[in-house]
Amino acid sequence: MNQDYNFSSKVKIFSLSLVVIGLMGIAYGFYSAPSTVEEAKEIVANMSHGSDHGGGSDHGGESDHGGESDHGGGSDHKEVTLGGHEYDHDKHVFNQLHNKPWAAVYVPALFFMMISLGVLAFYAIQRAAQAGWSIVLYRIMEGITSYLLPGCIFVLIILGFSALNFNHLFIWMDPEVVAHDEIIRNKVGYLNIPFFFLRAVIYVTGWVLYRNISRRLSLKQDNDNDISIHKKLFKLSAGFLVFFLVSESMMSWDWIMSIDPHWFSTLFGWYVFAGMFVSGITTIALITIYLKSQNYLNFINNSHIHDLAKFMFGVSIFWAYLWFSQFMLIWYSNIPEEVTYFITRIEDYNLLFFGMVVLNLIFPLIVLMNSDFKKTNFIVILTGIIIIIGHYLDVYNMIMPSAVGDMWSFGPAEIGGFLFFLGIFIYVVFKEISKAPILAKGDPYIEESKTFQYYNLD
């Protein structure tokens, strides 16, 4: 007899504590950000150790936009070039420092939203493939995808503040930049605020509708043995995957790549998908192992954990393949408009850029290659935490160089932003899991899933 999950007070207190601590860090980040150009100049002048994070580099965030400047506090340059137009250097540095707390919040907001979206894609694939092994994990997946709507709302709020000029994360939203930048001006048919938010509403509506409809049908199936529900979920999931492939790619162009509107990559949509996909699968594994340790998932065996670990291993290799393909082709072709993206990251974010490759490829490759390790909970948890950190850094590397240039750091705002969204994520997910039976018992393949064995792993 299975015991359904109860949302314990310990989990509530833990998640809410993370939210409070995170809010304090975020508040400090906004409080310490400059509100005037003069304050920005004073902050840069006080960065005597700025070279530790590239403060004296010749490659700042504007190099992603096709320009060059010196960001050192004692720079003699009074103007920088952005898309062929000269801007006051001090104003440019002010925009970067002013962006820091906004970017520190945007990165984790996007990261945890994409974890939920990655799980939704994995859930749809399992439904469309009519996979038998994963049915016992459906309620875990449905719990994780419950964060999708609040996660998207957080992202849209930040995007809304960008459109209202509260920050300078998306330079194409600045009419002054567009007026003097031919490249961005030629993209105005796509990169304009009304169409941008219209697309965003379409993406979010499609994702949330599928999530809510599939969740409702899944719960209905528990008390109804009608095979038609299974067929509806199959057709719905197959159709959703078509929408997902298009909308996810466009989302990655809009919400990530357009931060640097002078750069583009035809592989970018797949690259972002691979990162969110492996992060989502890893999250499923971590929550499953935790709940099993609390004696809630007695129908989960080593074979289920082994299969999740196989996906963690395989998708990590897929992510690395896409990372290398994108990097090598652009680096080898050496086209200035493209290669500047990687020059900025290698010169100003060297440790983070190559460090996240080690975390996302080398560590999972070495550890999860061993079949015995794939069914060892401690090893899967350790590898999972490394993968989550690695892909958070991957998102950090996508956003920060274009948003703040070489003014990056890991301070209260960055740590606070991560903890804040982690706390909300944990609260929403575990509360949702507690709302329904933890086993999707109405699925026609449920017995196959409960008795699933991969050779003699048990």
Give your account of this protein's structure:
By secondary structure, this protein is mainly α. The protein has one domain. It contains 16 helices and 2 strands. The protein has a two-stranded antiparallel ribbon with strand order 1-2. α5 runs antiparallel to α8.
* Series of H and E elements: HHEEHHHHHHHHHHHHHH
Biggest β-sheet strands, sense, barrel: 2 strands, antiparallel
Low-pLDDT ranges: 48-80, 82-86
Number of strand elements? 2
Proportion in helices:
55-70%
Total of DSSP H or I helical runs spanning 4+ residues: 16
**Separation of the first and last Cα atoms:** 21 Å
Write a short abstract of this structure.
By secondary structure, the protein is mostly helical.
